[in-house]
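Example 4.3 (complexes with small molecules)
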Amino acid sequence: MTHQDATPQDAAPHATPNNFLGLTDAHGAFERARVVVLPLPFEATVSYGAGTANGPAAIISASQQVELYDREFDAEPVAAYGIHTLPAPDLDSDPARAVEQIAAAVADIARKGKFVVALGGEHTVSVGVVRGLLDAIEGPLTVVQIDAHSDLRQEYEGTPWSHACMARRLLDDTRVAQVLQFGVRSVSTEEVEFARANRNRVRVWYVNEVHESPAWKRELCDDLRGSNVYVTIDVDGLDPALVPATGTPEPDGLSWREVLDILHTVTQCAEIVGIDCVELAPHAGQHAADYTTAKLLYKAITYAMVHNRQAEGAGYLTATPTSPYGGLANQPELWSSNKPAGASPATA
Ligand SMILES: [Mn+2]
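Answer. The structure with manganese (II) ion bound is encoded below.
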């Protein structure tokens, strides 16, 4: 399956453009695109399985197999907002320096009015992305973290820049109001104690709390209302049956629908201003993991765009009553809550 309807003269017939979703310039040119994908193949502090430096390329490659049409919206959502994929920047192998470089790159993109979607790489990259966003847009920012781990250690294996310290480094920045975590099921005593001592800035919904009751939805919305939100998706937050190709897999993860429900709930109560997806470590023969990650990202981007005030004028998307996701089908009016009178749904 390919998406393009025209190929450059020098390309092989039917070659898919090598960008996120395999878009032609009609939906992928920088000037046209509301969304910019930034690959960050950074890997310096991995503690268990390696290979996350190959994550961005695997996500981009797999994304070219994702259908642009989304039944939930009865449209090709990307046609309403456009996605441009940048080349990966050269990053220093020193994590502190790499975080600075990432922050500068992200701030530059955000200042051009683009919505940044970063692809890791190890989770440390999120520290740079958030810092760059906060340098470009007005704070404060709330971070919603989907992850098997809390990443709240002060340091790990001798470095404060470990992927296991990501959320703690975010909280070093006072412009980060809160870190709200979902899917956590592997934490240290230090992290539990830190979270308990900092309840005003850290909230953890352990995975069983998501599995067992919808109470988290109201609690999340109470915490979020009015916030600008950055979403960081560590693919190990999902169940390893869905994404086994990650450095530190943990059993009993979030289901596909639970993750979508979390993302959708965020868009009901707040505005998403940036997204990353990290820690995919592609394995030969496990391409379902790459594909699942790519498809999740397309969904996450679309959900963010549907309720993004800055995207006004780019076209509106509406969910259909046939949505396979119960939470959406039951509340279709929520999907048009910021739609001005007379606006028509996006068409493909
Ligand atoms: Mn993790």
